[in-house]
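Hi R.,

Here's the chain you asked about this morning:
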Amino acid sequence: MPLRHLLLALLLMVVWGSNFVVVKTTLHQLPPLLMAALRFALAAFPALLWLPRPAVDWRNVAAYGFLIGVVQFSCLYTAIQGHITPGLASLVVQTQAFFTTGLAMYFLRERVQAFQWGALCLAMCGLGLIAWHTDGDTSLLGLVLVLTAALGWSSGTLVCKQAGGVNLLSYVVWSSVWATFPLLGLSLVFEGWPAIQEALQQAHALTWAGVAWQAWANTLFGYAVWGWLMARHPAATVAPLSLLVPVFGMASSALLLGEPLPGWKLGAAALVMAGLALNVLWPRWRARHAG
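And the predicted structure, written out as C-alpha coordinates:
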Protein backbone atom coordinates (compact mmCIF):
# COMPACT_ATOMS: atom_id res chain seq x y z
CA MET A 1 0.00 0.00 0.00
CA PRO A 2 1.50 3.40 -0.97
CA LEU A 3 2.28 5.78 1.87
CA ARG A 4 -0.45 8.25 0.90
CA HIS A 5 -3.04 5.46 0.91
CA LEU A 6 -1.82 4.28 4.32
CA LEU A 7 -2.04 7.81 5.68
CA LEU A 8 -5.58 8.12 4.33
CA ALA A 9 -6.50 4.84 6.01
CA LEU A 10 -5.00 6.03 9.31
CA LEU A 11 -6.97 9.29 9.02
CA LEU A 12 -10.13 7.22 8.60
CA MET A 13 -9.32 5.20 11.73
CA VAL A 14 -8.83 8.45 13.66
CA VAL A 15 -12.20 9.72 12.40
CA TRP A 16 -14.01 6.50 13.31
CA GLY A 17 -12.26 6.15 16.67
CA SER A 18 -12.66 9.75 17.83
CA ASN A 19 -16.31 9.79 16.79
CA PHE A 20 -17.24 8.14 20.08
CA VAL A 21 -16.11 11.31 21.86
CA VAL A 22 -18.16 13.39 19.41
CA VAL A 23 -21.20 11.22 20.15
CA LYS A 24 -20.79 11.65 23.91
CA THR A 25 -20.43 15.43 23.57
CA THR A 26 -23.44 15.79 21.25
CA LEU A 27 -25.60 13.70 23.57
CA HIS A 28 -25.36 16.50 26.13
CA GLN A 29 -27.78 18.43 23.90
CA LEU A 30 -29.76 15.81 21.98
CA PRO A 31 -31.58 12.66 23.11
CA PRO A 32 -30.04 9.53 21.53
CA LEU A 33 -32.84 8.46 19.18
CA LEU A 34 -33.31 11.99 17.84
CA MET A 35 -29.56 12.34 17.33
CA ALA A 36 -29.44 9.08 15.38
CA ALA A 37 -32.36 10.23 13.21
CA LEU A 38 -30.67 13.56 12.47
CA ARG A 39 -27.41 11.80 11.63
CA PHE A 40 -29.00 9.63 8.98
CA ALA A 41 -31.22 12.43 7.69
CA LEU A 42 -28.09 14.48 6.96
CA ALA A 43 -26.38 11.45 5.46
CA ALA A 44 -29.33 10.96 3.09
CA PHE A 45 -30.25 14.54 2.17
CA PRO A 46 -29.32 16.20 -0.09
CA ALA A 47 -26.84 13.56 -1.36
CA LEU A 48 -29.55 11.27 -2.75
CA LEU A 49 -30.62 14.05 -5.12
CA TRP A 50 -27.49 13.48 -7.24
CA LEU A 51 -26.44 9.95 -6.34
CA PRO A 52 -28.25 7.28 -8.39
CA ARG A 53 -30.25 4.63 -6.58
CA PRO A 54 -28.07 1.52 -6.09
CA ALA A 55 -28.80 -1.34 -8.49
CA VAL A 56 -30.07 -3.72 -5.84
CA ASP A 57 -33.48 -4.81 -4.55
CA TRP A 58 -35.03 -2.14 -2.32
CA ARG A 59 -35.66 -4.71 0.42
CA ASN A 60 -31.92 -5.22 0.72
CA VAL A 61 -31.35 -1.46 1.02
CA ALA A 62 -34.16 -1.17 3.57
CA ALA A 63 -32.82 -4.06 5.65
CA TYR A 64 -29.34 -2.56 5.71
CA GLY A 65 -30.69 0.85 6.72
CA PHE A 66 -32.77 -0.67 9.50
CA LEU A 67 -30.01 -2.87 10.90
CA ILE A 68 -27.26 -0.26 10.77
CA GLY A 69 -29.31 2.83 11.54
CA VAL A 70 -32.04 1.63 13.87
CA VAL A 71 -30.52 -1.38 15.60
CA GLN A 72 -26.85 -0.40 15.72
CA PHE A 73 -26.95 3.30 16.40
CA SER A 74 -30.10 3.56 18.52
CA CYS A 75 -28.54 1.03 20.90
CA LEU A 76 -25.04 2.52 20.70
CA TYR A 77 -26.17 6.10 21.33
CA THR A 78 -28.48 5.05 24.16
CA ALA A 79 -25.63 3.12 25.76
CA ILE A 80 -23.16 6.01 25.55
CA GLN A 81 -25.72 8.32 27.17
CA GLY A 82 -24.87 7.31 30.71
CA HIS A 83 -24.53 3.52 30.50
CA ILE A 84 -20.97 2.98 29.21
CA THR A 85 -17.93 5.14 28.58
CA PRO A 86 -17.14 6.10 24.97
CA GLY A 87 -13.75 4.38 25.09
CA LEU A 88 -15.18 1.06 26.21
CA ALA A 89 -18.02 1.39 23.68
CA SER A 90 -15.47 1.76 20.87
CA LEU A 91 -13.87 -1.47 22.06
CA VAL A 92 -16.95 -3.60 22.75
CA VAL A 93 -18.67 -2.75 19.46
CA GLN A 94 -15.76 -4.37 17.62
CA THR A 95 -17.17 -7.74 18.75
CA GLN A 96 -19.22 -7.43 15.57
CA ALA A 97 -16.44 -9.50 14.00
CA PHE A 98 -17.48 -12.48 16.11
CA PHE A 99 -21.18 -11.96 15.50
CA THR A 100 -20.42 -11.89 11.78
CA THR A 101 -18.62 -15.23 12.11
CA GLY A 102 -21.54 -16.74 14.03
CA LEU A 103 -24.16 -15.48 11.59
CA ALA A 104 -22.13 -16.74 8.63
CA MET A 105 -21.89 -20.13 10.35
CA TYR A 106 -25.66 -20.27 10.89
CA PHE A 107 -26.97 -18.84 7.63
CA LEU A 108 -24.16 -19.60 5.19
CA ARG A 109 -23.15 -22.93 6.77
CA GLU A 110 -19.57 -21.78 7.17
CA ARG A 111 -17.46 -23.85 9.55
CA VAL A 112 -15.92 -22.21 12.59
CA GLN A 113 -12.25 -23.10 12.81
CA ALA A 114 -10.18 -23.73 15.92
CA PHE A 115 -8.43 -20.35 15.84
CA GLN A 116 -11.83 -18.62 15.73
CA TRP A 117 -12.95 -20.41 18.89
CA GLY A 118 -9.69 -19.33 20.53
CA ALA A 119 -10.22 -15.74 19.41
CA LEU A 120 -13.78 -15.80 20.75
CA CYS A 121 -12.61 -17.13 24.13
CA LEU A 122 -10.07 -14.33 24.46
CA ALA A 123 -12.66 -11.67 23.62
CA MET A 124 -15.23 -13.21 25.98
CA CYS A 125 -12.70 -13.08 28.81
CA GLY A 126 -12.24 -9.39 28.11
CA LEU A 127 -16.00 -8.77 28.07
CA GLY A 128 -16.35 -10.76 31.28
CA LEU A 129 -13.76 -8.52 32.90
CA ILE A 130 -15.74 -5.45 31.82
CA ALA A 131 -18.99 -6.94 33.17
CA TRP A 132 -17.25 -7.75 36.48
CA HIS A 133 -16.20 -4.12 36.90
CA THR A 134 -19.52 -2.42 36.13
CA ASP A 135 -19.80 0.82 38.10
CA GLY A 136 -21.30 4.27 37.81
CA ASP A 137 -19.66 4.84 34.41
CA THR A 138 -20.27 1.42 32.87
CA SER A 139 -23.30 -0.75 33.59
CA LEU A 140 -24.39 -4.21 32.53
CA LEU A 141 -27.21 -2.56 30.54
CA GLY A 142 -24.63 -0.48 28.65
CA LEU A 143 -22.63 -3.60 27.83
CA VAL A 144 -25.74 -5.40 26.55
CA LEU A 145 -26.78 -2.40 24.45
CA VAL A 146 -23.37 -2.13 22.79
CA LEU A 147 -23.33 -5.89 22.13
CA THR A 148 -26.77 -5.50 20.52
CA ALA A 149 -25.35 -2.66 18.43
CA ALA A 150 -22.51 -4.96 17.37
CA LEU A 151 -25.06 -7.61 16.37
CA GLY A 152 -26.91 -5.03 14.26
CA TRP A 153 -23.64 -4.02 12.61
CA SER A 154 -22.68 -7.60 11.78
CA SER A 155 -26.16 -8.39 10.45
CA GLY A 156 -26.01 -5.29 8.27
CA THR A 157 -22.60 -6.38 7.00
CA LEU A 158 -24.03 -9.69 5.79
CA VAL A 159 -26.95 -7.90 4.13
CA CYS A 160 -24.50 -5.56 2.37
CA LYS A 161 -22.47 -8.57 1.25
CA GLN A 162 -25.59 -9.99 -0.42
CA ALA A 163 -25.98 -6.74 -2.39
CA GLY A 164 -22.88 -7.57 -4.43
CA GLY A 165 -20.61 -5.03 -6.08
CA VAL A 166 -22.76 -1.91 -5.72
CA ASN A 167 -21.53 1.66 -5.33
CA LEU A 168 -21.01 1.70 -1.57
CA LEU A 169 -21.47 5.46 -1.12
CA SER A 170 -24.76 5.41 -3.02
CA TYR A 171 -25.81 2.34 -1.07
CA VAL A 172 -25.17 4.04 2.28
CA VAL A 173 -26.92 7.26 1.26
CA TRP A 174 -30.08 5.56 0.03
CA SER A 175 -30.19 3.13 2.93
CA SER A 176 -30.02 6.09 5.32
CA VAL A 177 -33.57 7.00 4.28
CA TRP A 178 -34.74 3.67 5.71
CA ALA A 179 -33.02 4.52 8.98
CA THR A 180 -34.22 8.11 9.30
CA PHE A 181 -37.99 7.65 9.46
CA PRO A 182 -38.08 4.66 11.85
CA LEU A 183 -35.68 6.52 14.16
CA LEU A 184 -37.89 9.61 14.07
CA GLY A 185 -40.89 7.45 14.94
CA LEU A 186 -39.05 5.81 17.83
CA SER A 187 -37.92 9.23 19.08
CA LEU A 188 -41.50 10.49 19.08
CA VAL A 189 -42.73 7.42 20.96
CA PHE A 190 -39.97 7.04 23.55
CA GLU A 191 -38.52 10.55 23.88
CA GLY A 192 -41.66 12.55 23.15
CA TRP A 193 -42.35 15.69 21.18
CA PRO A 194 -41.70 18.09 24.12
CA ALA A 195 -38.18 16.68 24.60
CA ILE A 196 -37.54 16.79 20.84
CA GLN A 197 -38.77 20.38 20.58
CA GLU A 198 -36.73 21.50 23.57
CA ALA A 199 -33.58 19.80 22.27
CA LEU A 200 -33.91 21.39 18.83
CA GLN A 201 -34.52 24.83 20.31
CA GLN A 202 -31.51 24.61 22.64
CA ALA A 203 -29.12 23.01 20.13
CA HIS A 204 -26.22 25.31 19.31
CA ALA A 205 -23.63 25.37 16.53
CA LEU A 206 -21.38 22.81 18.27
CA THR A 207 -24.31 20.40 18.53
CA TRP A 208 -25.08 20.62 14.83
CA ALA A 209 -21.36 20.32 14.06
CA GLY A 210 -21.36 17.05 16.01
CA VAL A 211 -24.32 15.71 14.03
CA ALA A 212 -22.75 16.83 10.75
CA TRP A 213 -19.45 15.19 11.71
CA GLN A 214 -21.21 11.87 12.25
CA ALA A 215 -23.23 12.16 9.04
CA TRP A 216 -20.59 13.46 6.65
CA ALA A 217 -17.18 12.58 8.12
CA ASN A 218 -18.03 9.33 9.89
CA THR A 219 -20.65 8.01 7.45
CA LEU A 220 -20.17 9.45 3.95
CA PHE A 221 -16.42 10.15 4.01
CA GLY A 222 -15.77 7.02 6.06
CA TYR A 223 -17.61 4.56 3.86
CA ALA A 224 -16.44 6.23 0.65
CA VAL A 225 -12.78 5.99 1.70
CA TRP A 226 -13.20 2.46 3.03
CA GLY A 227 -14.78 1.32 -0.23
CA TRP A 228 -12.10 3.15 -2.24
CA LEU A 229 -9.31 1.42 -0.31
CA MET A 230 -11.00 -1.97 -0.55
CA ALA A 231 -11.30 -1.55 -4.32
CA ARG A 232 -7.57 -0.85 -4.71
CA HIS A 233 -5.95 -3.18 -2.18
CA PRO A 234 -6.51 -6.74 -0.95
CA ALA A 235 -9.00 -7.05 1.90
CA ALA A 236 -6.26 -8.79 3.89
CA THR A 237 -4.27 -5.54 3.75
CA VAL A 238 -7.08 -3.12 4.56
CA ALA A 239 -9.32 -5.00 7.02
CA PRO A 240 -6.77 -5.34 9.88
CA LEU A 241 -6.48 -1.55 10.05
CA SER A 242 -9.94 -1.47 11.70
CA LEU A 243 -8.24 -2.84 14.82
CA LEU A 244 -6.97 0.70 15.35
CA VAL A 245 -10.51 2.08 15.89
CA PRO A 246 -10.73 1.14 19.60
CA VAL A 247 -7.14 2.28 20.10
CA PHE A 248 -8.02 5.78 18.90
CA GLY A 249 -11.42 5.54 20.60
CA MET A 250 -10.01 4.81 24.05
CA ALA A 251 -7.11 7.25 23.64
CA SER A 252 -9.31 10.15 22.52
CA SER A 253 -11.83 9.45 25.29
CA ALA A 254 -9.05 9.47 27.89
CA LEU A 255 -7.41 12.64 26.51
CA LEU A 256 -10.51 14.69 25.71
CA LEU A 257 -13.08 13.46 28.24
CA GLY A 258 -10.79 12.36 31.03
CA GLU A 259 -11.98 8.75 30.91
CA PRO A 260 -9.85 6.82 33.42
CA LEU A 261 -7.83 3.86 32.19
CA PRO A 262 -7.30 1.61 35.23
CA GLY A 263 -5.47 -1.68 34.95
CA TRP A 264 -8.61 -3.79 34.59
CA LYS A 265 -9.80 -1.70 31.64
CA LEU A 266 -6.45 -1.96 29.89
CA GLY A 267 -6.43 -5.71 30.59
CA ALA A 268 -9.93 -6.10 29.15
CA ALA A 269 -8.89 -4.09 26.09
CA ALA A 270 -5.83 -6.28 25.65
CA LEU A 271 -7.93 -9.47 25.78
CA VAL A 272 -10.57 -8.22 23.34
CA MET A 273 -7.95 -6.79 20.98
CA ALA A 274 -5.97 -10.04 21.13
CA GLY A 275 -9.09 -11.96 20.18
CA LEU A 276 -9.86 -9.58 17.33
CA ALA A 277 -6.28 -9.69 16.09
CA LEU A 278 -6.22 -13.49 16.17
CA ASN A 279 -9.53 -13.65 14.30
CA VAL A 280 -8.40 -11.20 11.59
CA LEU A 281 -4.68 -11.84 11.23
CA TRP A 282 -4.25 -15.60 11.77
CA PRO A 283 -5.73 -16.66 8.37
CA ARG A 284 -3.46 -14.12 6.61
CA TRP A 285 -0.38 -15.35 8.49
CA ARG A 286 -1.24 -19.00 7.80
CA ALA A 287 -1.90 -18.38 4.10
CA ARG A 288 1.39 -16.51 3.71
CA HIS A 289 3.45 -19.22 5.37
CA ALA A 290 1.59 -22.04 3.65
CA GLY A 291 2.59 -20.59 0.29
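The CA atoms of residues 104 and 110 lie 6 Å apart.

Let me know if you need anything else.
M.
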